[in-house]
């Protein structure tokens, strides 16, 4: 069974899952972001996972389902590209 695309059912499932969280936006300088990314990579963690661990918080429920740091980096790059569209 291959990838069927982003279906309406998947969209609704994601929306339901995300309702249990609050999103926090924090602004960093490019140098600060680079420092945080470097420290996270040293611990083989994503930036959100690194920040949560530094605060003593547990990972989000789905955090363990995606462990490939390269996959996260791709998502982060895509998110950065999308943020430029908003500005």
Annotation keywords:
87 residues, mainly alpha, 4 helices, 57% helix
Protein model, in words:
The chain is mainly alpha-helical. α2 crosses α3 (47-54). The chain is extended. The model has no long low-confidence stretch (mean pLDDT 80). The chain has a domain at 29-86. The longest helix has 18 residues, at 69-86. 57% of the residues lie in helices and 0% in strands. The protein is built from four helices and no strands. The protein has helices at 8-18, 30-42, 47-54, 69-86.
The geometry reads as extended
The SS-based structural class is mainly alpha
Radius of gyration: 15 Å
Uncertain stretches of 5 or more adjacent residues:
none
Query: Which oligomerization state do the chains in this entry correspond to?
Result: single chain
Q: Summarize the main sheet.
A: none
Provide the β-strand percentage band.
under 5%
